[in-house]
Amino acid sequence: MRITIFGTGYVGLVTGTCLADVGHDVICVDVDTDKIARLRDGEVTLYEPGLESMVKRNLASGRLRFTTDPAEGVAFATLQFIAVGTPPDEDGSADLQYVLAVAETIGRHMQEYKVVVDKSTVPVGTADRVHSTVADALAARGETIDFDVCANPEFLKEGAAIEDFTSGARIVVGTDAERVKELMRECYAPYSRLHDKLMFMDVRSAELTKYAANAMLATKISFMNEMANLAERLGADVEQVRVGIGSDPRIGYQFIYPGCGYGGSCFPKDVQALARSAAEVDYLAELLNAVEAVNRRQKQNLFQKLFLAFDGDLEGKTIALWGLAFKPDTDDIRDAPSRTLMEAVWKAGGRVQAFDPQAMKECRRVYGERDDLILVADRIQAVKGADALVICTEWKEFRTVDFEWLKANLSMPVIVDGRNLFDPRAVKRAGLRYFAVGRGDSL
Ligand code: UGA
Question: Whose CA is nearest to atom 23 of ligand 1?
């Protein structure tokens, strides 16, 4: 089957590559000429385990192609996936200009029946706007060619995107058209071999499903962060509470890890966008707003703990920072808790000496060269000459630590751990002060 994907960002590239890998003929279209040139050479500019080798394999087989020519993309296939970005507008609502620009392009070039598939995370009602944009573009040409629009949200986690695409729990397709159902069944047949993962529903429900899933997961995290903050004040250990509640299958163990706040390109943006959609239909989404507020506060927590440990004086201090990415196995620092921490340290007159296994290039790109940001080659270098250590990302390699060595190398014996990586007793035995999340300072 032939498939066209507009957008070679995270979602578009993973989708296109995975679909090529199961035998479809895929063409990916992007306006970024530099990116397309690199992709044609098999160079993947984002970090996702396994993706680059998969791109190379499918380029070599000829099943995966890249182009900057939208007309070529539109002509190539009946299925036209839109997987371009939906960045937040100033008011938090999703900016649809890129999605609608692709819709317009499809309407401008199409010569026969097409199915426009919304893969981007878009507010409820976007499929209708895509539909009218394509129709307007056709009308401008004086054409009346048949087409359908369906919603097919993605549920990929960065760092596990290939696994999520190939073995995800479900494939949601929002459409009422039998013709679309047949085409989407054919597209996703390779992933439904063991059991039928396809869930057909109406378009608006599919669009809301995506937001509801992310909002539910974000709610679990904010809830646990609230419990952690309470545990700190009530003298309890949230890690024991986590195990205690997770054992109830109605609650489950997943996404109840307290930490320094959720980040990334999805949860913060999607929770805000859904709250914004609610406001547009005159509904005050109190829970969503609270989830967002708790998260904002949680991201400030690390700095507050650090600030207290230094008696409010971070002027001239060097803070070792382990982890910049919003979570392990990605180089993504969008809305990462590390950024809130760094920016607060800088504001207080301190400097940051940071290491991340993947995200340092991205960090340099975002913040540029500056005296108060020193990026070093490994976690040991980050600690050398530093006053205290803060941990923002739970990369595997941060989990084992020689606390005696740390104690000897930090001028202040302080670890602020945003991911609860260590046994507090072991840290304290070495004579370090340990500020974890929801575990009290005295465990
Ligand atoms: C998330 C969803 O998990 C995907 O299902 C969804 O498809 C994707 O957004 C999207 O909308 O595209 P992702 O942003 O890659 O995926 O990252 P997650 O693994 O969900 O983590 C998000 C944040 O929550 C991270 O900052 C992580 O550290 C934090 N988190 C996660 C916690 O603080 N505690 C937890 O228990 C779990």
Answer: 262
